[in-house]
Amino acid sequence: MTFEGDCPFCNPQKDNDQNILFENETCYLLQHNNHQDVLEGCAVIVPKN
Which of the residues 13, 19, 21, 39 could staple to 29 if both were Cys, CB 3.0 to 4.6 A apart? Predict the structure, then answer.
């Protein structure tokens, strides 16, 4: 995975509606406030660089 400056997954801190539910040395577990309508509680695991 390459780092992109405008990628919302590469830069979760830049989006105030993006919540980092869990973080360790290798990945983030992210949940976005605006995408909880269809499947409440859904999240995505994103590897770190």
Answer: 21
User: Among 2, 47, 15, which Cα is nearest to 31's?
Assistant: 15
Is residue 43 included in any domain, yes or no?
Answer: yes
Classify residue 38: in a domain, yes or no.
Answer: yes
Cα atoms in the 13 Å half-sphere on the side-chain side of 5: 0
Task: Give all strands of the β-sheet with 27-32 in edge-to-edge order.
Answer: 18-23, 27-32, 44-47
Provide the domain limits for residue 41. 12-47
Position 1 in a domain: no
pLDDT in tens, the chain (49 residues): 566 777 888 888 888 999 999 999 999 999 999 888 888 899 999 998 7
Per the listing, tokens 């990628």 go with: 7
